[in-house]
Amino acid sequence: MNKGKASLADLIFRSIFIIFSILTVGITIHTYQLSVNTINEEVKRNLQQTSGIINNFFEHRLSILQIRQDTDAESLAIYDQYIESDYKNKLNTYFSNIEAKSPYNSPDFRFIEVNNKLYWDDGNSSFLSLNENCLKIIIKKNLNINTWYYIKMKEPLSEADFLIRKTPIVNNDSGRIVAFIYNAVMLNNNISFLNKLKKLTNSQDVFIINDNKILASSVSSNTEIYQEVTSILNGTRKRIPSKILNFTPINIKSMSGEISILSLKNKDNIELLEQRFIYSVVLSFFVLIAIAVLIRGLFEHKILLSLNSLLKYTNTVSKNETRSEYQGCGILEFDQIGEKLEQTFSELIEAKEDSYKAQRAAEKLAQVKSDFLARMSHEIRTPLNGILGISSLLKSSNLTREQQKQVNILHQGGEHLLAVLNDILDFSQIEQEKLKINSAPFKLSDVLENINAIYFPLCKNKNVLFSIENHVNPDVFINSDQVRLTQILFNLLSNAAKFTEKGKVKLTLSLNKHNSDYYLQFSVDDTGVGICAEEQTRMFEPFEQSGFSESRKFGGSGLGLAIVKQLLDLLKGKITINSTLGVGSTFSVLIPVLICEDKADISDAKAENQITSLPTGLKILLIEDNKSNAYIAKAYCQKYGLNVTWRNDAAQGIAELSKSEFDLILMDNQMPGMSGIKATKYIRNHLKIMTPIYAYTADALEESNQEFFSAGANYIITKPIKEKSILDALAFYKSENGLPPFDS
Predict the structure, then answer these.
(1) 668: burial class by Cβ within 10 Å (0-12, 13-18, 19+)?
(2) Which of 78, 162, 320, 616 is found 20 to 30 A from 139 (Cα to Cα)?
(3) CA 497, CA 526: separation in Å to the nearest integer?
(4) Which fold does the domain 619-736 belong to in CATH?
(5) Which has the closest alpha carbon to 579: 631, 644, 523?
(6) How confident is the model at residue 320, as a pLDDT?
């Protein structure tokens, strides 16, 4: 009779298993669907955000280049002689200076069109597979002005993809267009551009696409992911496992099809979440089986009632999706099941609430990401000693000719800035006969190039014609004090430009020979306000200017000409003035100089002899708190085989001396805590160490030097440090330590 019939326990087991399975799976699926929807919405927002970041980055990058191009066009409009007078070298210098100051704001290449012909290009295009013929083809396309275009260039010897913009150069006086300047950004193989996109969008890989062809990518072409993307573009496959693909079209006018950015992101987190849900479902089924087995042996008189109470509870909780406490049914096992269900439902509901919290957190994170912009404006102003030191080190390194030219201009600018900042100190030292002249060979053309770069635009802004008439051979090396000569020229030209409101300012130079002596002669002519005869007699006195009213009108301290006169006295030169009030002035200068027919005559032989006889292997302790100054000092010392140990304050230096021996100590003065002078006294009086101490200080006053000597210093090296300073210091070291000095 009972054959084939299930027991109540079996029925209860099966019923509980089926019902609980359905409820658990339903809630799990519902929660899973909510989570999937949340994930899909987050993926959608992430893709939109990625597209927004890409477009914003393109707009930001092109806006920076557009501003740079418009600024260049306005600057060239002011100096349209660059175009009309065929001064291509000046264009090279102008753009080289611009690129040196802000390379990020510069395009990959640029060129200028005049009368539908290629007039000038910066030379960068030749390194980017674009020859001169390609530039002419671009000109013939007759692009609209002030609009970015995408162009694919295919020539027998050239193939390139780039964005380009054309801007007119308009003469400010006549209003006519004298030329067009083109700025271009390369797309193919632009790795740095792709890496920035990759970092900004937090993508694993980034591709630039044109008509389903890859122009550039952040991965190599022989990688698997590159081949998979190629297959998607060719239509042979639709997706890449574990990757989220996002195509972002770029809104750029094109002559060669549309371009877009393909970004790839991992979806490992999504797959992991899906796996966890699957594991939770499986685990729920095993838990249900265990629960059903435990209640199998219960009797029917209470089981159904208890089961109804339990089912009612589960239905209420699953329907309302809110936490509810199970009240119990009188059977311990069912109460345990109820408690387990209560805990399970609480966990499921808590998981659902956590899912909502995660969704809100993801939305907040997306907002934070959208508000985050990469700030690049990373202009760093190094100390003047750093500029001169690093530029000196660069000058002796293996540079290209153009780089050498740029470093020379940087170094000369730093030298001149140092001279200008020290005007008052120089005047005081001259008065006290403390200023020294440092002669060295140099090319006059290098000085004139720097002068022209400064005073040509300065005069142009005042509608004053500035010109240089140089009769000195540009290959001749002149042995004199380049810094003081430059300071004299700058002071005279600054006065001429300041007091001239119309007409011209002209610098004329020549090299004259009298008997066996050479003289550098130059004159500065202007059509300014002029100077009356009475005032000419006191023009070179300190703090004097041409009339009180003119001083009020043009400004200035009146110290410039006084310094010029005193510097010329030190150089054994002379200056004369010829001026007519209301007509203009001419300042004529004559300076004796030495001429080096060959650069090797400058004392290279002496330098080589010095270098070969310098002491090497010396252990030097450098006590200097400024990192850039320490870096420069170490570089010069290591160049001549010296072993340098650096400590950044006096306390650390004294501690190092207590445990190690050194051949020489380089001591800075102005340091936090203990000064260099106090540290020197401590080393001599308390530590009783007699190691030579060379003061390495920016204090140029004689009083400070005497304090150092009184404290126990053996030698003074004045900042900014130069290579010759190190050589002189080593020569002094040899002579003081019983070593024969090198030949002079």
Answers:
(1) buried
(2) 78
(3) 8
(4) Rossmann fold (3.40.50)
(5) 523
(6) 65
148-152, 310-314, 512-516, 615-619: least confidently modelled range:
310-314
Q: Which superfamily does 437-545+556-596 belong to? A: Histidine kinase-like ATPase, C-terminal domain (3.30.565.10)
Alpha helices in 238-331 (DSSP H): 268-294, 300-320
Cα 519 from Cα 564, distance rounded (Å): 17
Query: Residue 623 contacts by C-beta under 8 Å, 6 or more apart in sequence?
Result: 647, 648, 649, 650, 652, 653, 665, 666, 667, 668, 671, 676, 679
Find the helix packing angle between 268-294 and 332-371, rounded to 10°. 170
Per-residue pLDDT at 86 exceeds 80: no
Residue 669 DSSP code: S
Q: Are 50 and 248 in contact (CB under 8 A)?
A: yes
User: Which residues are bridge partners to 736 per DSSP?
Assistant: none
Helices (H), 85-243: 88-101, 132-140, 191-201, 224-234
Q: What is the pLDDT of residue 274?
A: 62
Q: Which amino acid is at 424?
A: I
Q: How many CB atoms lie within 10 A of CB 425?
A: 13
Mapping DSSP onto H, E and C, the string for 448-490 reads HHHHHHHHHHHHHHCCEEEEEEECCCCCCEEEECHHHHHHHHH
Phi, psi of 16 (to 5 degrees): -60, -45
Residues 6 or more apart whose CB falls under 8 angstroms from that of 224 comprise none
Alpha-carbon span 445 to 475, nearest angstrom: 8
- Class of CATH domain 321-435: mainly alpha
Q: The tokens of 647 are what?
A: 């400590």
Tokens of 191: 């790795």
* CATH topology identical between 79-186 and 619-736: no
Q: What is the DSSP string of 387-442?
A: HHHHHHHHHTS---HHHHHHHHHHHHHHHHHHHHHTHHHHHHHHHTT------EEE
Tokens linked to 634: 């170490």
What are the boundaries of each domain within the chain? 79-186, 321-435, 437-545+556-596, 619-736
543-587 pLDDT, tens per residue?
A: 555 443 444 444 444 567 888 888 888 889 999 999 888 889 999
Tens-place pLDDT, residues 274-311: 667 667 667 766 776 676 556 555 455 556 666 666 66
For residue 610, name the pLDDT band (cuts at 50, 70, 90): very low
The residue to which tokens 């010296």 are assigned: 642
User: What is the rounded CA–CA span in Å between residue 77 and residue 72?
Assistant: 8
Alpha carbon separation from 437 to 400, 405, 524 (Å, rounded)? 32, 25, 23
Is there a cis peptide before residue 720, judged by omega within 30 degrees of 0?
A: yes
- Asked whether 729 and 715 are in contact (CB, 8 A), the reply is yes
Distance CA 7, CA 12 (A): 8
* Paired tokens of 36: 């999937």
CB–CB of 180/167 below 8 Å? Answer: yes
Alpha-carbon gap, residue 563 to 729, rounded angstroms: 30
CB burial string 144-180: b at 16+ within 10 A, e below: eeeebbbbbbeeeebebbbbbbbbebbeeeeeeebbb
The single residue listed with the structure tokens 């193919």 is 188
SS3 518: strand
- CATH superfamily membership of 79-186: LuxQ periplasmic domain, N-terminal subdomain (3.30.450.220)
